[in-house]
Specification:
6-stranded antiparallel β-sheet; 41% strand; elongated; single chain; mainly beta
């Protein structure tokens, strides 16, 4: 039986009335084009990872003036019937991802939860000429010519029997406010309708790790040996193309991947509203996590599973320095 993983973040805030509250299998067409910058950006100052969407902890808040409980992109804004003057916020970040390999009209799908990872073997297009997505490998320029990484091209290719990956993410996060004065009153904001559908195609057969680093972000990672073989072509460069229902698309070609190159790319949509993101990263110079292709999902070691113990540990560790007077 699969255990469901979740992350619970608790903030304790004290407020006084009259003062400001501290701010703690048919592919549908894309729903909209991005409303803001559609590229993810490296975090600063050390550029250690890609920032695609705001975190749940950053978005959690209660406004005592409007009585609105919110976490943009994660839960639906909810009004409380009365004003909470002394309260506790409990955020439960959750999501599920349906991971499906597609080939020859056959779709094999498995679902993982937030905090879990899965390694999948995905067959590539494996064509150097007349490639419907990547075009043609030009031996003179040593590059792909005539690329067509668009929603229409990719979905038509995969739904017509092509080889690739389909990822369907569903947000399941909730946010609860509890009254610390009476100890019983609480209100819960339900999950925002923040979903996405992503199609991914590779030039060649590949092994990738799929995960949900955030309830709003889907991630693919490839380590050494991720591409199982290369054509016998000088300076050949494999590639990946992804398109999203939220409206973003991108193609990344990995030149000289045998030489220990690393990369981090990502796209996002609706940054100012219900942000949704896709992150692609590869590291051909670091050992790939040991896991068999298409293995059952396993929870990350950092993902707690016991809800009673979890609350006790996080309350102890996260309420320090979060009380306001």
């Amino acid at each position: 039986m699969m255990m469901r993983s979740f992350a619970l973040t608790t903030f304790l805030t004290t407020a006084t009335l009259g003062t400001d509250t501290p701010s703690p299998i048919t592919a549908s067409p894309p729903t909209a084009t991005p409303t803001t910058d559609d590229r993810c950006h490296f975090s600063r100052p050390d550029f250690s990872h890609l920032e695609c969407c705001p975190t749940f902890a950053d978005q959690m808040r209660y406004n005592a003036t409007t009585r609105e409980l919110s976490a943009t992109g994660y839960v639906e804004p909810t009004l409380t019937s009365g004003v909470f003057s002394k309260y506790k916020l409990e955020g439960n970040e959750g999501a599920e991802l349906a991971v499906a390999t597609m080939e020859g009209g056959l779709i094999l799908e498995t679902t993982i939860d937030f905090g879990e990872k899965m390694t999948k073997l995905v067959n590539g297009v494996n064509e150097l000429t007349d490639n419907p997505i990547f075009g043609e490998w030009n031996t003179t320029r040593q590059d792909w010519i005539g690329r067509n990484c668009t929603w229409e091209a990719v979905t038509n290719y995969l739904n017509g029997g092509g080889r690739g990956l389909r990822l369907r993410r569903k947000n399941l996060s909730t946010l609860t406010i509890k009254d610390l004065l009476d100890g019983t009153t609480e209100v819960t904001a339900e999950p925002a309708d923040n979903e996405d559908e992503i199609y991914v195609v590779f030039t060649d057969n590949a092994v990738v790790e799929v995960s949900l680093p955030q309830a709003t972000v889907t991630k693919l990672f490839m380590g050494p040996g991720g591409f199982l073989f290369f054509p016998d072509v000088e300076n050949y460069a494999p590639g990946i193309c992804w398109v999203t229902k939220s409206g973003t698309q991108n193609m990344d070609v990995m030149y000289n991947p045998q030489h220990g190159w690393r990369g981090d790319e990502g796209t996002r949509a609706n940054l100012a509203a219900d942000c949704t993101g896709f992150q692609w990263s590869y590291d051909f110079d670091t050992a790939n996590p040991t896991q068999s292709p298409s293995a059952e999902p396993t929870s990350s070691a950092a993902s707690p599973k016991g809800s009673t113990t979890l609350v006790a540990i996080l309350l102890l560790g996260l309420t320090v320095g979060t009380i306001y007077f």
